[in-house]
Amino acid sequence: MTKKVGVLALQGAVSEHISQINQLGGQGIAVKTPADLAQVQGLIIPGGESTAISRLIQQVNLYEPIQEFAKTNPVFGTCAGLILCGSGITDGGEKLKPLNLIDIAVTRNGFGRQVDSFEVDLDIENVGKAIPSVFIRAPFIDSVGQGVKTLATYEDKIVMAEQGNVLVCSFHPELTDNNQVIGYFMSKIAG
């Protein structure tokens, strides 16, 4: 059975995620409404502008449905998606309403502005060694609660973690040819 993996399609790198999902044998589906969400077995919340995505999630009535979905299905937040999945923001973000899917506090733009973007190879637990990772205005995880497992760090900052069926990373796995990170997420989806 083909795994149906949703990508929240309100803003951000949607087509790149869908492309990797399809390359891995899944079916990538753009999620814009609660009805779309009901069709998928896993959800990726992609990068973009976290405040804008937060506002749009509420406008299209997806806030509570995503929270309910995450109780029984895998969710993966990348870059801005990590910020949205978290439970606290350490540097402002007053206009942002986090989804509280994983017990982490996040620093937005933790690695600087757009001009400070970089690519680095990371060793990621459960995924592999020297995984190419693209950081663009990337957040980092300031602190983790009990039950949160750190999967990768860069310069002593946590950049990938998981708790239950929720996975988050600071970088953009969809912007490289390496599909191991998205493959790891898809391995969490039953089917």
Can you describe this structure?
The protein is α/β, with parallel strands linked by helices. It has one domain (4-187): Rossmann fold, CATH 3.40.50.880. Helices cover 25% and strands 32% of the residues. It has six helices and twelve strands. The strands form three sheets. A seven-stranded mixed beta sheet has the order 2-1-3-4-12-11-10. A hairpin with a 2-residue loop joins strand 10 and strand 11. The mean pLDDT is 94.
Briefly note the structural class of the backbone.
Answer: alpha/beta
Query: Looking at CATH, which topology would you report?
Result: Rossmann fold
CATH architecture level-2 label: 3-Layer(aba) Sandwich
**Spatial order of the strands in the main sheet?**
2-1-3-4-12-11-10
Helical content class: 25-40%
**At the fourth CATH level, what is the homologous superfamily?**
Class I glutamine amidotransferase (GATase) domain
Layout: helices, strands, pairs:
Elements: E1 4-8, H1 14-23, E2 27-31, H2 34-37, E3 42-45, H3 50-59, H4 63-72, E4 75-78, H5 80-85, E5 88-89, E6 104-107, E7 118-124, E8 128-135, E9 140-144, E10 149-154, E11 157-163, E12 166-169, H6 180-187
Parallel strand pairs: 1-2, 1-3, 3-4, 4-12, 5-6
Antiparallel strand pairs: 6-9, 7-8, 10-11, 11-12
